[in-house]
Amino acid sequence: MTTGLGVLSLFTGAGGLDLGLEAAGFSTRLCVENDPIACATLRTNRPKWTLAETSDAVELAKDPLAALKAAGLAKSDIVVLAGGPPCQPFSKAGYWIENQPKRMNDPRADTINAYLDIVRAVKPPVLLFENVPAFAFKGKDEGITAFRAGLEAVNRSAGTNYAPSVFLVNAANYGIPQIRERIFVVAARNGAEFRMPTPTHGAGSTRRYVTAWDAIGELDEQSPDDSLSVQGKWADLLPSIPEGKNYLWHTLEGGGLPLFGWRTRFWSFLLKLSKRLPAWTIQASPGPAIGPFHWRNRLLSIDELARLQSFPKDYSIQGARTASRRQIGNAVPPMLAEVIGVEIRRQLLGSRLSNRGPSLAIPVRKDRPRAYPTREVPSKYRSLVARHKPHPGVGKGPGSAAANTSTVHSVASA
Fold first, then answer.
1. pLDDT above 80 for 91
2. Catalytic entry in 31, 87, 144, 308
3. What are phi and psi of 338, to 5 degrees?
4. 6-206+321-348 maps to which CATH number?
5. 31 a catalytic residue
6. pLDDT single digits (tens) 342-361
7. How far apart are CA 57 and CA 66, in angstroms?
8. Spatial separation of the C-alpha atoms in residues 325 and 329, rounded to whole Å
9. Angle at alpha carbon of residue 109, lines to 108 and 110, rounded to 5°
10. pLDDT of 160-185, one tens digit each?
11. Partners of 181 in the beta sheet?
12. In this structure, how many other beta carbons lie within 10 angstroms of the beta carbon of residue 372?
């Protein structure tokens, strides 16, 4: 462990970002997290990480130096300020349900200002910031615009030269067994440019994607308990959908029965993993019919969810299922954080590093069983067979007054 590369971690959650930075040679010196169950996860797995006495980042931002002092730290102990503020103000689900998330008008966006206030006080050599793609979505980029303006204000008042580099990163392109797009912002105090490394997996690279089977195949024969049974109105329809497909299988454009209109549901509705592909994005708080589901027509276990997010096998997520799922779904994949952390050391901190692959990399399996068999559509759903209307178009979704509620359903109805 290179303890001289100290990290001040904001919105630490289950520690995904910090685990990756740890694997890259950094040392988490102080964590700021207000969820007591996530704090229990941190204490269980990394008891040497210090949890700030002030757990609320917005409150801590009023006097960051006092928080460092209380932890026995000085500004010079912090090399990286890392964190991903709550993403709900910019989430994709907001477009589906309401046609427009609250974005910077959401009170939770105050956490972005808190991050900037801490930058102003601590002035760390490197900033690492993570959020959902809509944080910097073209034409709806209030988040990144406010962030850039805030850093410019810090530069004027503090004599720094932070120049943020912004990247849309798909975790699957770097060997994580999950298709997960997120915005990463890296900025050096001296103005040095950061470049995201070239993707190592998938199209255009020499290595195939790491698949869901690679990540959780060794758990496939374990007998699931009853808690992993799918519940709700659509549970019995799931077995009729092939691996790697979602509800679109049962539309006029799919290969099943026309039970739904094209694109009238959220993408993850009845979405099932494929052994041949990475998982789709693990959500923090999905509804009962929202996937991805296991190819064996059940919920994914907490161990499976954690592995798909690239958490180490011996890392224990605390809390009941809902709390554990939330921690995993909100986390940065540790392996992706390791990739970025290594490049921060190489490009911005002058470290000479070997070209070894990520220590958190998931081994590729050579075996791959055939797809799990499907079943016929149960009779109770066959009354839905019809020529359903497709989604009416952008801006006319379920939250819009123009939506036809007889054929277009919200995530909540799923």
1. no
2. 87
3. -65, -45
4. 3.40.50.150
5. no
6. 999 999 999 988 888 999 99
7. 13
8. 6
9. 85
10. 999 999 999 999 999 999 999 999 99
11. 170
12. 17
